[in-house]
Amino acid sequence: MIPRQDFAQFINHNTFISNECLGVLSTLGDEDNHSKPINVMVRIISSNNEHRYCYAIGTISITAELSWLELERTCVKLFMDHITQIDSPFDYTKSSIGCTANHIDIITLGLTKWNYQDSPNDESPMPYTAAHVQDTLTIYLKGIQSNTTDSLAYNYFIPSQNLKNFIRYIEQNSYVGVYGAAYLQKKALFEDLMRYLERPMAFSTSAKFLVVKFEFESVTSLDDCIDELVEQNFLRTNQSSNEQQSSTKYLLYFANIQNSAGTDVLNLLLNGESSSGTCQKVSYTREEDSKSTTVYYFPSMFHIFITMSKRTWSTEHEVYKKFKWIPFKLENPPWNGLLKRHLWRRMIDVNIRENRLVDNELIKALQWVTNVWQRYNECLQKLSLQDALLGPALFFDCPMERETIFEWLQTKWNTIVAPLVREFSMNKCAQPKPRGSTSATAAATAIASSLRANSLEISTPYESVACTALYVLLHRAVSRDCPLTGQ
Questions:
Q1: Domain termination site, one of 308, 328, 348
Q2: Do 141 and 181 belong to one domain?
Q3: pLDDT at position 270, please?
Protein backbone atom coordinates (compact mmCIF):
# COMPACT_ATOMS: atom_id res chain seq x y z
CA MET A 1 0.00 0.00 0.00
CA ILE A 2 1.26 3.49 -0.90
CA PRO A 3 1.44 5.78 2.13
CA ARG A 4 -0.73 8.88 1.98
CA GLN A 5 2.31 11.17 1.93
CA ASP A 6 3.84 9.31 -1.04
CA PHE A 7 0.50 9.30 -2.88
CA ALA A 8 0.45 13.09 -2.79
CA GLN A 9 3.71 13.17 -4.83
CA PHE A 10 1.93 11.54 -7.80
CA ILE A 11 -0.82 14.20 -7.91
CA ASN A 12 -0.73 16.66 -10.77
CA HIS A 13 -1.50 19.99 -9.12
CA ASN A 14 -3.36 21.11 -12.24
CA THR A 15 -5.81 18.23 -11.79
CA PHE A 16 -9.10 18.91 -10.00
CA ILE A 17 -9.81 16.75 -6.95
CA SER A 18 -13.22 17.03 -5.35
CA ASN A 19 -13.63 17.95 -1.72
CA GLU A 20 -15.11 14.51 -1.10
CA CYS A 21 -11.90 12.87 -2.39
CA LEU A 22 -9.80 15.12 -0.22
CA GLY A 23 -12.04 14.18 2.69
CA VAL A 24 -11.40 10.48 2.07
CA LEU A 25 -7.64 11.07 1.81
CA SER A 26 -7.68 12.99 5.06
CA THR A 27 -9.01 9.96 6.92
CA LEU A 28 -6.73 7.29 5.38
CA GLY A 29 -4.30 5.71 7.79
CA ASP A 30 -5.73 7.57 10.77
CA GLU A 31 -7.85 5.14 12.76
CA ASP A 32 -8.29 7.50 15.71
CA ASN A 33 -9.54 10.29 13.46
CA HIS A 34 -11.80 7.87 11.57
CA SER A 35 -13.61 6.82 14.73
CA LYS A 36 -14.01 10.28 16.22
CA PRO A 37 -17.49 11.88 15.72
CA ILE A 38 -17.59 15.21 13.89
CA ASN A 39 -19.81 17.98 15.20
CA VAL A 40 -21.36 20.10 12.46
CA MET A 41 -23.28 23.31 12.96
CA VAL A 42 -26.76 23.43 11.40
CA ARG A 43 -27.96 26.75 10.06
CA ILE A 44 -30.92 28.15 8.10
CA ILE A 45 -30.10 30.51 5.23
CA SER A 46 -32.39 32.70 3.15
CA SER A 47 -33.46 31.68 -0.33
CA ASN A 48 -32.16 33.49 -3.39
CA ASN A 49 -33.64 36.92 -4.25
CA GLU A 50 -34.78 37.56 -0.67
CA HIS A 51 -33.40 39.76 2.08
CA ARG A 52 -30.39 37.95 3.50
CA TYR A 53 -30.60 36.05 6.78
CA CYS A 54 -28.56 33.26 8.36
CA TYR A 55 -29.25 31.67 11.76
CA ALA A 56 -27.55 28.78 13.52
CA ILE A 57 -30.12 26.43 15.07
CA GLY A 58 -28.06 23.62 16.62
CA THR A 59 -25.35 21.01 16.11
CA ILE A 60 -25.35 17.40 14.93
CA SER A 61 -22.75 14.78 15.79
CA ILE A 62 -21.88 12.78 12.66
CA THR A 63 -20.34 9.33 13.06
CA ALA A 64 -18.80 7.06 10.45
CA GLU A 65 -21.87 4.81 10.52
CA LEU A 66 -24.46 7.58 10.02
CA SER A 67 -26.37 7.26 6.73
CA TRP A 68 -27.77 10.12 4.65
CA LEU A 69 -31.33 9.16 5.54
CA GLU A 70 -30.52 9.14 9.26
CA LEU A 71 -28.77 12.49 8.89
CA GLU A 72 -31.82 14.00 7.21
CA ARG A 73 -34.14 12.71 9.93
CA THR A 74 -31.86 14.14 12.63
CA CYS A 75 -31.69 17.44 10.77
CA VAL A 76 -35.48 17.66 10.40
CA LYS A 77 -36.01 16.91 14.09
CA LEU A 78 -33.55 19.66 15.00
CA PHE A 79 -35.39 22.06 12.68
CA MET A 80 -38.79 21.28 14.21
CA ASP A 81 -37.40 21.63 17.75
CA HIS A 82 -36.03 25.03 16.74
CA ILE A 83 -39.40 26.13 15.33
CA THR A 84 -41.07 25.09 18.60
CA GLN A 85 -38.53 27.18 20.54
CA ILE A 86 -39.01 30.38 18.53
CA ASP A 87 -42.77 29.88 18.28
CA SER A 88 -43.23 30.35 22.03
CA PRO A 89 -40.35 32.43 23.48
CA PHE A 90 -40.79 33.92 26.95
CA ASP A 91 -44.08 31.97 27.22
CA TYR A 92 -45.55 33.76 24.19
CA THR A 93 -48.27 31.44 22.85
CA LYS A 94 -50.76 33.77 21.15
CA SER A 95 -50.00 32.60 17.60
CA SER A 96 -47.84 30.26 15.56
CA ILE A 97 -45.78 31.03 12.46
CA GLY A 98 -46.90 27.66 11.09
CA CYS A 99 -43.54 26.35 9.82
CA THR A 100 -43.37 22.59 9.20
CA ALA A 101 -40.84 20.13 7.79
CA ASN A 102 -42.56 20.46 4.41
CA HIS A 103 -41.24 24.01 4.24
CA ILE A 104 -37.70 22.63 3.81
CA ASP A 105 -36.51 22.85 0.23
CA ILE A 106 -32.82 21.85 0.07
CA ILE A 107 -30.24 20.53 2.54
CA THR A 108 -26.51 20.77 1.84
CA LEU A 109 -23.39 19.32 3.46
CA GLY A 110 -20.13 20.03 1.68
CA LEU A 111 -20.69 19.57 -2.05
CA THR A 112 -23.61 17.21 -1.44
CA LYS A 113 -27.00 18.80 -2.00
CA TRP A 114 -30.38 17.13 -1.90
CA ASN A 115 -34.07 17.96 -1.79
CA TYR A 116 -36.04 17.21 1.36
CA GLN A 117 -37.23 13.56 1.42
CA ASP A 118 -34.84 12.70 -1.43
CA SER A 119 -31.61 12.04 0.46
CA PRO A 120 -28.55 10.62 -1.38
CA ASN A 121 -28.19 6.85 -1.60
CA ASP A 122 -25.57 4.99 0.37
CA GLU A 123 -23.38 4.62 -2.73
CA SER A 124 -22.53 8.32 -2.43
CA PRO A 125 -19.70 9.43 -0.14
CA MET A 126 -21.04 9.07 3.38
CA PRO A 127 -21.93 12.10 5.56
CA TYR A 128 -18.85 11.43 7.68
CA THR A 129 -16.63 11.92 4.64
CA ALA A 130 -18.42 15.11 3.58
CA ALA A 131 -18.21 16.48 7.13
CA HIS A 132 -14.40 16.34 7.01
CA VAL A 133 -14.51 19.00 4.31
CA GLN A 134 -17.40 21.18 5.52
CA ASP A 135 -18.35 21.42 9.19
CA THR A 136 -21.64 23.25 8.49
CA LEU A 137 -24.94 21.76 7.35
CA THR A 138 -27.27 24.24 5.66
CA ILE A 139 -31.07 24.23 5.36
CA TYR A 140 -32.80 26.29 2.69
CA LEU A 141 -36.53 26.86 3.03
CA LYS A 142 -38.85 27.12 0.04
CA GLY A 143 -38.91 30.65 -1.30
CA ILE A 144 -39.40 32.74 -4.40
CA GLN A 145 -37.81 30.19 -6.72
CA SER A 146 -40.45 27.67 -5.61
CA ASN A 147 -43.16 30.34 -5.78
CA THR A 148 -43.85 29.93 -2.07
CA THR A 149 -43.55 32.21 0.97
CA ASP A 150 -42.21 29.68 3.48
CA SER A 151 -38.76 31.26 3.74
CA LEU A 152 -40.32 34.69 4.33
CA ALA A 153 -42.59 33.24 7.01
CA TYR A 154 -39.52 32.11 8.96
CA ASN A 155 -37.66 35.38 8.40
CA TYR A 156 -40.48 37.77 9.36
CA PHE A 157 -42.43 35.50 11.76
CA ILE A 158 -45.59 36.00 9.69
CA PRO A 159 -47.53 32.82 8.78
CA SER A 160 -47.10 31.81 5.15
CA GLN A 161 -50.85 31.94 4.55
CA ASN A 162 -50.95 35.57 5.72
CA LEU A 163 -48.21 36.45 3.25
CA LYS A 164 -50.08 34.72 0.43
CA ASN A 165 -53.18 36.69 1.40
CA PHE A 166 -51.21 39.95 1.09
CA ILE A 167 -50.09 38.98 -2.41
CA ARG A 168 -53.58 37.92 -3.47
CA TYR A 169 -55.11 41.11 -2.07
CA ILE A 170 -52.70 43.27 -4.07
CA GLU A 171 -53.41 41.26 -7.22
CA GLN A 172 -57.19 41.52 -6.86
CA ASN A 173 -57.47 45.22 -5.93
CA SER A 174 -56.20 48.15 -7.96
CA TYR A 175 -55.35 50.42 -5.03
CA VAL A 176 -54.04 48.91 -1.80
CA GLY A 177 -52.24 50.50 1.13
CA VAL A 178 -50.61 49.32 4.36
CA TYR A 179 -50.18 51.54 7.40
CA GLY A 180 -48.74 50.94 10.81
CA ALA A 181 -46.17 52.21 13.27
CA ALA A 182 -42.62 52.96 12.25
CA TYR A 183 -40.06 50.14 12.64
CA LEU A 184 -42.43 47.37 11.54
CA GLN A 185 -40.23 46.09 8.66
CA LYS A 186 -42.87 47.12 6.13
CA LYS A 187 -40.23 48.21 3.63
CA ALA A 188 -38.19 44.98 3.69
CA LEU A 189 -41.26 42.72 3.83
CA PHE A 190 -42.99 44.23 0.83
CA GLU A 191 -39.77 44.49 -1.16
CA ASP A 192 -39.64 40.70 -0.88
CA LEU A 193 -43.34 40.29 -1.70
CA MET A 194 -42.94 42.51 -4.78
CA ARG A 195 -40.50 39.95 -6.17
CA TYR A 196 -43.28 37.37 -6.11
CA LEU A 197 -45.48 39.72 -8.11
CA GLU A 198 -42.68 40.14 -10.65
CA ARG A 199 -42.44 36.40 -11.31
CA PRO A 200 -44.03 34.95 -14.47
CA MET A 201 -47.53 33.55 -14.23
CA ALA A 202 -48.11 29.80 -14.62
CA PHE A 203 -47.51 28.53 -18.18
CA SER A 204 -46.26 31.96 -19.23
CA THR A 205 -42.96 33.77 -19.65
CA SER A 206 -44.57 37.14 -18.89
CA ALA A 207 -44.33 38.62 -15.41
CA LYS A 208 -47.50 39.15 -13.42
CA PHE A 209 -46.57 42.81 -12.96
CA LEU A 210 -43.89 45.22 -14.00
CA VAL A 211 -43.15 46.82 -10.63
CA VAL A 212 -42.19 50.49 -10.57
CA LYS A 213 -40.81 51.34 -7.13
CA PHE A 214 -39.40 54.37 -5.45
CA GLU A 215 -39.04 55.54 -1.88
CA PHE A 216 -40.37 58.80 -0.54
CA GLU A 217 -37.44 59.33 1.80
CA SER A 218 -35.55 60.64 -1.25
CA VAL A 219 -38.53 62.49 -2.79
CA THR A 220 -38.87 66.16 -1.88
CA SER A 221 -41.37 67.42 -4.47
CA LEU A 222 -43.90 66.40 -7.08
CA ASP A 223 -41.29 67.15 -9.75
CA ASP A 224 -39.15 64.37 -8.26
CA CYS A 225 -42.08 61.94 -8.49
CA ILE A 226 -42.73 62.83 -12.13
CA ASP A 227 -39.05 62.47 -13.04
CA GLU A 228 -38.93 59.05 -11.41
CA LEU A 229 -42.05 57.81 -13.22
CA VAL A 230 -40.65 59.08 -16.54
CA GLU A 231 -37.31 57.38 -15.89
CA GLN A 232 -39.13 54.12 -15.08
CA ASN A 233 -40.96 54.44 -18.44
CA PHE A 234 -44.40 54.62 -16.84
CA LEU A 235 -45.07 58.21 -17.90
CA ARG A 236 -44.35 58.96 -21.56
CA THR A 237 -44.62 61.98 -23.80
CA ASN A 238 -45.51 59.90 -26.88
CA GLN A 239 -49.01 58.40 -27.00
CA SER A 240 -48.22 55.78 -29.66
CA SER A 241 -45.31 54.33 -27.68
CA ASN A 242 -47.60 54.01 -24.68
CA GLU A 243 -50.24 52.14 -26.67
CA GLN A 244 -47.57 49.68 -27.80
CA GLN A 245 -46.98 48.87 -24.12
CA SER A 246 -50.68 48.46 -23.31
CA SER A 247 -50.23 44.74 -22.61
CA THR A 248 -47.81 45.49 -19.76
CA LYS A 249 -49.43 45.31 -16.33
CA TYR A 250 -47.89 47.96 -14.09
CA LEU A 251 -47.75 48.00 -10.31
CA LEU A 252 -46.60 51.26 -8.77
CA TYR A 253 -45.02 50.61 -5.38
CA PHE A 254 -44.63 53.78 -3.32
CA ALA A 255 -42.66 52.94 -0.17
CA ASN A 256 -43.27 55.03 2.97
CA ILE A 257 -45.37 57.57 1.12
CA GLN A 258 -45.64 61.03 2.66
CA ASN A 259 -48.81 63.11 2.68
CA SER A 260 -47.37 66.11 0.80
CA ALA A 261 -45.70 64.88 -2.39
CA GLY A 262 -47.43 61.52 -2.05
CA THR A 263 -50.91 62.99 -2.06
CA ASP A 264 -50.05 65.18 -5.05
CA VAL A 265 -48.77 62.33 -7.23
CA LEU A 266 -51.72 60.10 -6.32
CA ASN A 267 -54.19 62.87 -7.18
CA LEU A 268 -52.46 63.31 -10.51
CA LEU A 269 -52.47 59.62 -11.44
CA LEU A 270 -55.99 58.84 -10.23
CA ASN A 271 -57.58 61.80 -11.98
CA GLY A 272 -56.15 61.40 -15.48
CA GLU A 273 -58.08 62.22 -18.64
CA SER A 274 -58.95 59.34 -20.97
CA SER A 275 -56.98 59.55 -24.22
CA SER A 276 -57.81 56.20 -25.82
CA GLY A 277 -59.03 52.78 -24.81
CA THR A 278 -55.62 51.81 -23.49
CA CYS A 279 -54.12 55.00 -22.08
CA GLN A 280 -54.90 58.24 -20.33
CA LYS A 281 -53.10 61.55 -20.04
CA VAL A 282 -52.31 64.34 -17.61
CA SER A 283 -50.99 67.83 -18.18
CA TYR A 284 -48.27 68.84 -15.77
CA THR A 285 -46.53 72.14 -15.15
CA ARG A 286 -43.24 71.79 -13.35
CA GLU A 287 -42.56 73.85 -10.27
CA GLU A 288 -39.20 74.87 -11.72
CA ASP A 289 -40.71 76.03 -15.03
CA SER A 290 -44.23 77.39 -14.63
CA LYS A 291 -44.37 78.75 -18.20
CA SER A 292 -44.46 75.37 -19.99
CA THR A 293 -46.80 72.41 -19.62
CA THR A 294 -46.02 68.82 -20.60
CA VAL A 295 -48.61 66.19 -21.50
CA TYR A 296 -47.79 62.73 -20.15
CA TYR A 297 -49.44 59.48 -21.23
CA PHE A 298 -49.75 56.37 -19.08
CA PRO A 299 -51.78 53.11 -19.10
CA SER A 300 -55.48 53.21 -18.29
CA MET A 301 -55.20 50.11 -16.12
CA PHE A 302 -52.55 49.88 -13.41
CA HIS A 303 -52.21 48.98 -9.74
CA ILE A 304 -50.87 51.10 -6.90
CA PHE A 305 -49.50 49.75 -3.63
CA ILE A 306 -48.36 52.13 -0.90
CA THR A 307 -46.95 51.82 2.60
CA MET A 308 -46.88 54.53 5.26
CA SER A 309 -46.05 54.95 8.90
CA LYS A 310 -49.08 55.49 11.10
CA ARG A 311 -47.87 58.92 12.13
CA THR A 312 -48.17 60.10 8.47
CA TRP A 313 -51.62 58.56 7.98
CA SER A 314 -54.41 61.05 7.35
CA THR A 315 -58.04 60.56 6.32
CA GLU A 316 -58.43 64.20 5.38
CA HIS A 317 -57.40 63.58 1.76
CA GLU A 318 -60.08 62.19 -0.53
CA VAL A 319 -57.54 60.31 -2.63
CA TYR A 320 -56.77 57.90 0.22
CA LYS A 321 -60.42 56.91 0.43
CA LYS A 322 -60.02 55.15 -2.92
CA PHE A 323 -57.62 52.65 -1.33
CA LYS A 324 -58.30 49.42 0.49
CA TRP A 325 -56.23 49.51 3.66
CA ILE A 326 -54.41 46.77 5.56
CA PRO A 327 -53.61 47.89 9.14
CA PHE A 328 -50.58 46.51 10.98
CA LYS A 329 -51.70 46.77 14.62
CA LEU A 330 -49.00 46.30 17.23
CA GLU A 331 -51.39 44.87 19.80
CA ASN A 332 -52.44 41.98 17.52
CA PRO A 333 -50.62 38.79 16.45
CA PRO A 334 -48.20 38.31 14.85
CA TRP A 335 -46.89 41.85 15.45
CA ASN A 336 -47.09 41.69 19.25
CA GLY A 337 -44.77 38.67 19.30
CA LEU A 338 -42.15 39.79 16.76
CA LEU A 339 -39.64 41.21 19.24
CA LYS A 340 -39.81 38.21 21.57
CA ARG A 341 -39.27 35.78 18.70
CA HIS A 342 -36.51 37.78 17.06
CA LEU A 343 -34.45 38.20 20.24
CA TRP A 344 -34.91 34.53 21.15
CA ARG A 345 -33.75 33.42 17.69
CA ARG A 346 -30.73 35.72 17.88
CA MET A 347 -29.83 34.40 21.33
CA ILE A 348 -29.94 30.81 20.04
CA ASP A 349 -27.80 31.79 17.06
CA VAL A 350 -25.14 33.50 19.21
CA ASN A 351 -25.05 30.68 21.77
CA ILE A 352 -24.42 28.09 19.05
CA ARG A 353 -21.88 30.08 17.02
CA GLU A 354 -19.89 31.11 20.10
CA ASN A 355 -20.44 27.85 21.99
CA ARG A 356 -22.04 29.64 24.94
CA LEU A 357 -24.06 28.09 27.73
CA VAL A 358 -27.62 29.27 28.33
CA ASP A 359 -27.45 32.44 30.45
CA ASN A 360 -30.56 32.84 32.60
CA GLU A 361 -29.56 36.40 33.53
CA LEU A 362 -29.38 37.32 29.84
CA ILE A 363 -32.81 35.78 29.29
CA LYS A 364 -34.23 37.95 32.09
CA ALA A 365 -32.68 41.05 30.51
CA LEU A 366 -34.09 40.21 27.07
CA GLN A 367 -37.51 39.60 28.60
CA TRP A 368 -37.27 43.02 30.23
CA VAL A 369 -36.42 44.65 26.86
CA THR A 370 -39.55 43.14 25.28
CA ASN A 371 -41.61 44.37 28.24
CA VAL A 372 -40.16 47.89 27.90
CA TRP A 373 -41.29 47.99 24.26
CA GLN A 374 -44.80 46.75 25.08
CA ARG A 375 -45.27 49.05 28.08
CA TYR A 376 -43.94 52.02 26.10
CA ASN A 377 -46.66 51.58 23.47
CA GLU A 378 -49.34 50.92 26.10
CA CYS A 379 -48.45 54.16 27.91
CA LEU A 380 -48.58 56.15 24.68
CA GLN A 381 -52.05 54.80 23.98
CA LYS A 382 -53.23 56.01 27.40
CA LEU A 383 -51.61 59.41 26.84
CA SER A 384 -53.34 59.77 23.45
CA LEU A 385 -49.97 59.83 21.66
CA GLN A 386 -50.62 56.96 19.25
CA ASP A 387 -48.61 58.68 16.50
CA ALA A 388 -45.43 58.05 18.51
CA LEU A 389 -45.91 54.27 18.64
CA LEU A 390 -42.81 52.30 17.65
CA GLY A 391 -42.55 48.89 16.04
CA PRO A 392 -40.33 46.09 17.36
CA ALA A 393 -37.60 46.40 14.71
CA LEU A 394 -36.14 49.39 16.58
CA PHE A 395 -34.99 46.92 19.26
CA PHE A 396 -33.88 44.06 16.98
CA ASP A 397 -30.21 44.97 17.44
CA CYS A 398 -30.30 44.44 21.20
CA PRO A 399 -26.85 43.17 22.26
CA MET A 400 -26.53 39.60 23.47
CA GLU A 401 -24.22 40.63 26.32
CA ARG A 402 -26.13 41.48 29.48
CA GLU A 403 -23.61 44.08 30.65
CA THR A 404 -24.04 46.22 27.50
CA ILE A 405 -27.86 46.20 27.28
CA PHE A 406 -28.40 49.18 29.58
CA GLU A 407 -26.02 51.44 27.65
CA TRP A 408 -27.61 50.31 24.36
CA LEU A 409 -31.14 51.10 25.61
CA GLN A 410 -29.99 54.43 27.00
CA THR A 411 -28.71 55.41 23.55
CA LYS A 412 -31.97 54.34 21.90
CA TRP A 413 -33.97 56.34 24.41
CA ASN A 414 -31.94 59.54 24.14
CA THR A 415 -31.51 59.58 20.34
CA ILE A 416 -34.83 58.16 19.07
CA VAL A 417 -37.53 57.64 21.69
CA ALA A 418 -37.28 60.87 23.72
CA PRO A 419 -37.06 63.24 20.70
CA LEU A 420 -40.01 61.46 19.06
CA VAL A 421 -42.25 61.63 22.14
CA ARG A 422 -41.26 65.24 22.75
CA GLU A 423 -42.08 66.20 19.16
CA PHE A 424 -45.51 64.59 19.11
CA SER A 425 -46.43 65.77 22.61
CA MET A 426 -45.78 69.39 21.70
CA ASN A 427 -47.32 69.08 18.23
CA LYS A 428 -50.48 67.66 19.74
CA CYS A 429 -50.68 70.53 22.20
CA ALA A 430 -50.12 73.11 19.46
CA GLN A 431 -52.71 71.72 17.06
CA PRO A 432 -55.16 74.32 15.66
CA LYS A 433 -58.53 74.64 17.31
CA PRO A 434 -60.60 71.60 16.25
CA ARG A 435 -64.23 71.89 15.22
CA GLY A 436 -66.60 71.86 18.16
CA SER A 437 -63.76 72.65 20.55
CA THR A 438 -63.91 75.65 22.87
CA SER A 439 -60.17 76.02 23.23
CA ALA A 440 -57.12 75.82 20.99
CA THR A 441 -55.44 73.88 23.77
CA ALA A 442 -58.07 71.16 23.90
CA ALA A 443 -55.51 68.54 22.89
CA ALA A 444 -53.15 69.69 25.60
CA THR A 445 -55.94 69.57 28.16
CA ALA A 446 -56.73 65.99 27.18
CA ILE A 447 -53.13 64.94 27.69
CA ALA A 448 -52.93 66.90 30.91
CA SER A 449 -55.98 65.08 32.23
CA SER A 450 -54.35 61.75 31.43
CA LEU A 451 -51.23 62.79 33.27
CA ARG A 452 -53.12 64.05 36.31
CA ALA A 453 -54.97 60.75 36.42
CA ASN A 454 -51.56 59.24 37.05
CA SER A 455 -50.97 61.71 39.92
CA LEU A 456 -48.49 63.75 37.90
CA GLU A 457 -48.79 67.53 38.17
CA ILE A 458 -47.90 69.80 35.25
CA SER A 459 -47.55 73.57 35.02
CA THR A 460 -48.08 74.46 31.34
CA PRO A 461 -49.77 72.53 28.53
CA TYR A 462 -46.81 72.51 26.13
CA GLU A 463 -43.22 71.97 27.31
CA SER A 464 -44.34 70.48 30.61
CA VAL A 465 -46.62 68.00 28.88
CA ALA A 466 -43.73 66.73 26.77
CA CYS A 467 -41.42 66.43 29.78
CA THR A 468 -44.08 64.79 31.91
CA ALA A 469 -44.95 62.31 29.16
CA LEU A 470 -41.30 61.28 29.07
CA TYR A 471 -41.26 61.01 32.86
CA VAL A 472 -44.28 58.69 32.77
CA LEU A 473 -42.71 56.53 30.08
CA LEU A 474 -39.37 56.32 31.84
CA HIS A 475 -40.85 55.18 35.14
CA ARG A 476 -43.78 53.13 33.90
CA ALA A 477 -42.08 51.42 30.95
CA VAL A 478 -38.32 51.35 31.63
CA SER A 479 -37.64 51.37 35.38
CA ARG A 480 -40.28 48.80 36.22
CA ASP A 481 -38.88 45.30 36.95
CA CYS A 482 -35.45 46.24 35.57
CA PRO A 483 -33.10 43.26 36.19
CA LEU A 484 -29.98 45.34 35.60
CA THR A 485 -29.34 46.08 39.28
CA GLY A 486 -27.99 49.53 40.01
CA GLN A 487 -28.60 50.82 36.49
A1: 328
A2: no
A3: 93
Its sign, for the CA torsion 10, 14, 16, 21, is positive
120 and 169 in a single domain? The answer is no
Per the domain annotation, does 10 fall within a domain? yes
Strands 273-274 and 279-285: antiparallel
Global confidence as pTM: 0.83
Total domains present in the chain: 3
Residues 6 or more apart in contact with residue 181 via CB below 8 angstroms? 309, 310, 311, 328, 330, 377, 389, 390, 391
Residues 423 and 277 in one domain: no
Same domain, 260 and 169: yes
Per-residue pLDDT reduced to its tens digit, 7-19:
445 445 455 455 5
Query: The domain containing residue 422 runs over which residues?
Result: 359-478
pLDDT value, residue 259: 62
Nearest to 138 by CA among 221, 56, 201: 56
Cβ(352)–Cβ(56) below 8 Å: yes
Segment 1-6 mean pLDDT:
50
For residue 343, tell me if it sits in a domain. Answer: no
Same-domain pairing of 53 and 165? no
Using the 8-state DSSP alphabet, how is residue 89 labeled?
G
Per DSSP, 219 falls in state -
pLDDT band at 221 (very low <50, low <70, confident <90, very high): confident
CA quadruple 128, 132, 134, 135: dihedral, nearest 10: 80
Q: How many helices (H) and strands (E) does the chain have?
A: 17, 13
Q: Name, in order, each residue with C-beta under 8 angstroms of 128's C-beta and a sequence gap of 6 or more.
A: 38, 62, 63, 64, 65, 66
